[in-house]
Every structure is written in structure tokens, then in C-alpha cells.
Amino acid sequence: MGESRRGNKFFIIAGPGNNGGDGFVVGRHLFNRGALVQFLITTDPQYYRGDAAVNLKIINDMELPCEVLQPDNVDSFKDDIKKADLVIDALFGTGFKGVPREPLSSLIRSVNEIGNPVLAVDIPSGMEADTGIIAGECIKAIITVTMGMPKIGLYLDPGAQYTGEVVVGDISFPPQLKSEEGGDYYLVDQEMVSGALPLRLPTQHKGDFGHVVVIGGTRGYTGAAALASNAALRGGAGLVTAVIPEQLYPVAAVKLTEAMTYPASGSKGGGFSSTCRASIQQVLEKATVLAVGPGFGQEEETAGFLEDLLLNTSIPLVLDADALNILTRRKHLLTDASLAEQRRQWVLTPHPGEMARLCGVSISEIQADRLGYAAQASREWGVVVVLKGARTIITGPEGPLFINPTGNPGLASGGTGDVLAGLIASFRAQGLAAEEAAYSGAFIHGLAADQIALKKGTIGMIAGDLLKEIPVVIENLIALKERGR
Ligand SMILES: NC(=O)C1=CN([C@@H]2O[C@H](COP(=O)(O)OP(=O)(O)OC[C@H]3O[C@@H](n4cnc5c(N)ncnc54)[C@H](O)[C@@H]3O)[C@@H](O)[C@H]2O)[C@@H](O)CC1
Ligand SMILES: [K+]
Predict the structure, then answer these.
(1) Mean pLDDT per segment of 10 residues, for the chain of length 485 residues?
(2) Residue spans per domain, the chain
(3) Is CATH 3.40.50.2000 the right assignment for the domain spanning 190-484?
(4) Rounded to whole angstroms, how far apart are CA atoms 377 and 348?
(5) What CATH superfamily is the domain 9-183?
(6) Which positions bind (6S)-NADPHX (predicted)?
(7) Which residues are annotated binding-site positions?
(8) Which of 155, 239, 298, 305 has its CA 20 to 30 A from that of 17?
(9) What is the C-alpha separation between 405 and 421, in angstroms, rounded?
(10) Beta-carbon neighbours within 5 Å of ion ligand 2
């Protein structure tokens, strides 16, 4: 803000709390840099308290233009809002709950309808800082300057759709306050992910990077297992084997060139037979990680095989897609105390629909409290949960919660989930802990999609595009790590 703002017009909406107080401070500094400022306060000055009252008095002493919003005068400010180069939204911050009371709702609606650029102070007014929930009207900002540390709601839908670009304003919080307020949440960033990725030494060979065994495929669905297997290779796993029901084996073997393939005894329906574990014992003995579920099918025979496998293996697992749907019907596998030790090695990657079925609630209930359901499921079942969707949530039974900021709507197409499962399995096989592998997989998967979007847009993005981009993203993250050494 060091530069001159001479002649630029700013319309500042300042609410009754400390967010409004920030608005007065911003406006005062803009005025001192030559800007034209106009304040709109939302209640009688006598109701302003604390820092907000102090700063309101300062702008009054400076005789800066300031009017009071009344139930019947909302429309009279429309012209001034239209003329503003930038509207500053300092109406509500972290103290906001529920639906904005009138006439504030009407004011927010007018600002959005007029459509001039808005900078939100701390959070866009109308959303709840801790959840991103928007119950009524909410300011649609082009930029949000959040104070001290990013608020979680800025990264959770629907809030995330109202923030525009998020910039963290440094107000020099003392460090202990920062962590106190930050709670048990982390935004996944490139330092965390590059820190978790293994560095490769010239003396290492493929045996050092783990063996991922993908178990999936049923009649009509061989592509999913192939995508997961290739993603595991692109993520850097040393060896990958796709275990496929024997009837589909010839088709799958053609689809996969670099990954190995192995037939499991099949069911009549074209899936896995319930007793097929013995037929793949040789492969299981060599596996570092199993990724189970892509294109797996849900027939009873296959469900029987999954149960047999889960009861009799302690190999780390990534469970995706139909494996999760089967768990919904065989819930005891998630709750039986006798499996608690094994479950510590499981990563579940549900999308909101699968999560809703697993938790026995509706998709809208999951979406309204993504953090809450992810945390509860992870604690109750003792597994790492990766709840997919815009802003994937990752958490383990002991917390904390990680929110992944990468990714875009281009990921809403068939097969991208298979790629994520393969990628997480790949990182697990390379020695990352379950949570690390999960958040690194989600971050890199989303970043690959973001890179593709820059080059080709999101509409025609397909899962196969991610496979080519993933190695580039990983290479850049490793370079970042090497620079930091
Ligand atoms: N916590 C801190 O240490 C700091 C906070 N700061 C700012 O202060 C903000 C938080 O301040 P406050 O706690 O005063 O809260 P807010 O500034 O968010 O405002 C709360 C006010 O809004 C009213 N309100 C809440 N829900 C409403 C609804 N549905 N309809 C109408 N009115 C409603 C409340 O009655 C209260 O008067 C932060 O967002 C940030 O901008 C910064 O100044 C930096 C330091
Ligand atoms: K605000």
C-alpha cells in the first residue's frame, strides 16, 4: 500500500465489529495516500465498540464522508457503489454467524448485483469463517485479504467460491496465538509435500521404491485398474502389478505395458471369486501396498473375496470405489476391534456419495460438514480418510485435518479417482506414512489438473492427461526440496 492511490474511489462498508474496525483503518490509510474514500456504517455510531469505536472516531475526527445504513435507504447508495473503483467489504469477519439481518442482506445483494470489484477484509461477509457455510447472502469478492492466517472457510465450499484470490495479510500475530487460533487444521502446501517426498540417490534401484499391487477390474471395467496401475508407476513406485479376474486378464494385459498383470480366479459374473486369495498368494507376498477397488464390482463373490483379504492381510491398503461400497454392506470390517491393528494401515478414499453411504447419511449432510464427517469417520474406524470433492479433506484418527487447495472442476470426470488411489498407493510404497501419502497424493493430483487447465482448460480434461502431468509436478516439487537442502 506504499504507492499513491490519488483519485481512486473506494467505497468502504464497515460493520459493527472488529472487521469494521479494520475497514476504518484501511480507509484512513487509503485517504492518506490520496484516494477518495466513502464509508458506510451499518448501525448507529454509538453501538460501535472497542477498536472499531476508536477507529470510527478517528475517521470522524478526520471528517471523512461516512453515512449510516437504514432499513429504507439501501438503494440510495447504489450510485456511489457503481462509481467506486473498489468496494471494500469490512462488514463481517470471524464473528459472523447465520444469515445477515436486514437491511444487510439487501446491501450485500446490491453490491453483488452491481458487480464492481470487491476486496473482502478477512473473509467475504456472509460466510462462516470456520466452515465456509453460507446460509444467506454473501459478498462475492475478487480478492480476500485474510488477517494473520488463512481461515478454513476460505478453502471449503461454498465459501471458497466467494473469496476470489486469497492473500494473507501479515499483522504479526505472536506465534503461539497463531497456532492456538489455527486449531488442528493445515492447508496442504508445496513445502509440506516436497518435504514428504523421498529424494532419490543414484545408488538406489527399483526394488527400493516399493511394489504396488492394484486389485480391481470386473466385466466392462478394466480401464479403472489400468489407470490406477499407471498412476502408481507415474508416482514413482518401483514395481506395479495389476491383479485382474482371469476372464478379463487378456484385455487388461493389452492395456498395460509397463505394469505387470496377474490373473485371479474369477466368479461367474466376471469379477473375483470369493476364494481367489489363494490364487494370488504369490503376488501378495511381494506387495508393499495394495490398492483395492478400482472397477472392482460389487457382486457377492467379490465382496466375499474383499472380506477374506481384509481379514487375512496386514499389508498397507488403499481402499477405493467399489471396495468402499462393499464396506458399506460389511460395516463390521470397519468397526470390529479384532481388525483395529490392521486398519491403522488403511487409507479410504471416498467421494461424497461413497462417504454418504458409509456414514448412512445423505450427500448434502456430508457436504454441509465435510470436516466433521471426515474427522468422525477417521476416529471411529481408526483409518486415514481422504474425502474427495472440491477441497479434498485428509485426516487420520489422531488428527490433524488437512485441506487440499489444488484441483479444479476438470477433475469431475471418470477415472480421476482411480488415478488418485494409484498415486496414494505409490507414495505409500515409497515409504511415506499413510497421512503423508494421502495429502501428497491429493495435492499432486490436483496440481497436475491445475497445470493441464492452464494449457488446455478444464472441459475436455480426462484422467489419462493427469498421468502425463504427474511426473512433471513431482519433478518440480523435488527440485524445490533440493534447493532447500
Ligand atoms: N481476533 C483478532 O485478534 C483480530 C481480529 N481482527 C478482525 O476482527 C474480526 C473479528 O471481529 P469480531 O469478533 O468483532 O467480529 P466481526 O467483525 O465479524 O463482527 C461481529 C458483529 O457482527 C454481528 N453479527 C454476527 N452475525 C450477524 C448476523 N447474522 N446478522 C447481523 N449481524 C451479525 C455481531 O453481533 C457483531 O456485532 C476478524 O474477522 C478480523 O477482521 C483483526 O482486527 C486482527 C486481530
Ligand atoms: K469482510
Answers:
(1) 74 95 92 92 90 87 94 96 97 95 97 97 96 95 90 91 89 43 74 85 76 93 93 96 93 86 94 96 97 96 98 96 98 97 96 98 95 96 96 92 92 95 97 94 97 92 96 92 70
(2) 9-183, 190-484
(3) no
(4) 10
(5) YjeF N-terminal domain (3.40.50.10260)
(6) 224, 295, 351, 418
(7) 224, 295, 351, 388-392, 417-418
(8) 155
(9) 18
(10) 89, 120-121, 125
